[in-house]
Amino acid sequence: MTFDLSLYLVLDPDLCRDHSMLETTMAAIRGGATMVQLRHKTASTREFIEIGRALRAAMAGSGVPLIVNDNIEAAIAIDAHGLHVGQDDMPAEMARQKLGKDKILGLSIESEAVARKIDKSVIDYVGIGPVFATSTKPDHKPAIGFEGLAHLTTLCNLPSVAIGGVKQEHVTDVLESGADGLAVVSAICGQKNPETATRQLADAIKNARARLASGPFQTGQN
């Protein structure tokens, strides 16, 4: 299926205390989120499936894909649109075999060595980072910065989303690095008004794309 990585919400149950993950998701979709990932490291598979089915039902008809982080059993039971795996999760080839060819499969990329080993016939998109250190994933690999992001984006040569501490003020740098969008957690989850926060991000992405498409401003022309 087709997908748009522009504004990729990664749900965090701890940050979604004032607004549940379901409330946050629907607010984010109204604000312009283009993909949603359900990440819940402490939930049992049964709990994961329960939450995921509620999200899947609420998101029906929105056109926004629901991606499950790591838990392939839950992804299949939910009939999620796809799965995202990290380097320490199930191998991507095995995940593809279990998921089938019609689902979206994303892979986390943290280093040049990993980027060079990607099988593009298996992976649909890559999540590249962490761009910055982030408290929402304390066990992350060293931050790569925008220079690292640009390097890995070029190496992977697949649709890509930047992740790891990226916020509205980083939109232009992320897009200039070659990534197709931003994966955000705290920039939406835990915000007082998730819909407004998402809309501001979506507008920033749209405006940055327009500026980049017009090319560098030139003076001295007649």
TrEMBL record:
SUPFAM superfamilies attached to this UniProt entry: Thiamin phosphate synthase (SSF51391)
Domain of life: Bacteria
Every Thiamine phosphate synthase/TenI domain range: 7-188
Any single biological process term in GO: thiamine biosynthetic process
Enzyme Commission (EC) number: 2.5.1.3
Keywords: Magnesium, Metal-binding, Thiamine biosynthesis, Transferase
Role this protein plays: Condenses 4-methyl-5-(beta-hydroxyethyl)thiazole monophosphate (THZ-P) and 2-methyl-4-amino-5-hydroxymethyl pyrimidine pyrophosphate (HMP-PP) to form thiamine monophosphate (TMP).
The name this protein goes by in its record: Thiamine-phosphate synthase
The encoding gene: thiE
